[in-house]
Amino acid sequence: MLGIHHQSNVQLLKNLSYFGSERHGYMVPDHFLGSHSICYCVGAGEDISFDTELKMAFDAKVYIFDPSPYGINHFNQVKDYVNHGIPLTLDKTLAPYVYNISSKQFSEIKFVPVGLWDEKKTLRFYDPERENYSSHSAILFTESKNFIEAPVDRLSNLMTELGHQHIDLLKIEIEGAEYKVIDTIIEDKLNVKAILVEFDEIYNTKDKSFHFRIKRSCNKLRKAGYVLAHSTVAMKRLFIRKDIYDQLKKLEINA
């Protein structure tokens, strides 16, 4: 009724491959990324399996963004294990995942301790009031008495600072701030070819209107020229700019 069924408006690409751990992985189009591709992975938390596999599979130029202590500490922990040749396993009981990236590959990943927002500022990120949940949020959990303050910036500013005119793949897993960031992408008419986004309110509902917020944000992307090419029940969605989508679709037909 709300048009938010996870398969609504999906124009599925057949040639997709899964990267990352069971809980934090995503589908990526085949024949899309390569060694010259620029990938922004926003929101590290305590799992950068997807981000590291982009480097391993494609030798892509990977940038990880996260201003939180959890994200910074986990990145440094992975780096320490990798540099010492020690396997680090995530989620040992339910869905074990082992980082297999080499120290050389990991050294080529750039970590940026800044979050995404619609302006450059210092922002409050509230602690989750759930056990064993490491992600802070500027939007959700605002009733929590505990918070951290961390730097954020607009995506267009960060692209300028890093010297990038375009992004091939943007992953945003940012606990409710995705609506605001999607708005800036559209407003600034940024050259972003594909967007992977997790709509976190499926699990951490702010209020009863979350269905409308998700639907509205997805409609904005579609109106801006993106095709919804894949979606999971958990609302982890792949949007591809139509010109790129059409190229990938032709490869399916000619295969």
Describe this structure in words.
The protein has 255 residues and is an alpha/beta fold. 29% of the residues lie in helices and 26% in strands. It has 7 helices and 14 strands. It has helices at 49-58, 69-83, 103-107, 155-162, 178-187, 210-223, 242-254; strands at 16-19, 26-29, 38-42, 61-65, 89-90, 97-98, 110-112, 115-117, 121-126, 147-154, 167-172, 192-198, 226-231, 236-241. The strands form 4 sheets. It has a 7-stranded mixed beta sheet, sandwiched between helices. Helix 5 packs parallel to helix 6 (210-223). It is globular, with a radius of gyration of 18 Å.
In short:
Helix content is 29%, strand content 26%. It has helices at residues 49-58, 69-83, 103-107, 155-162, 178-187, 210-223, 242-254; strands at residues 16-19, 26-29, 38-42, 61-65, 89-90, 97-98, 110-112, 115-117, 121-126, 147-154, 167-172, 192-198, 226-231, 236-241.
* Tally of DSSP helical segments: 7
CATH topology: Rossmann fold
Total domain count: 1
CATH superfamily (homologous) name: Vaccinia Virus protein VP39
Q: Which spans of ≥5 residues are poorly predicted at pLDDT below 50?
A: none
CATH architecture name = 3-Layer(aba) Sandwich
Order of helices and strands: EEEHEHEEHEEEEHEHEHEEH
Radius of gyration based on Cα positions: 18 Å
Distance between the termini: 37 Å
Mean pLDDT: 89
InterPro entries: FkbM_mtfrase, METTL24, SAM-dependent_MTases_sf
Domain Methyltransferase FkbM: 60-227
Protein name: Methyltransferase FkbM domain-containing protein
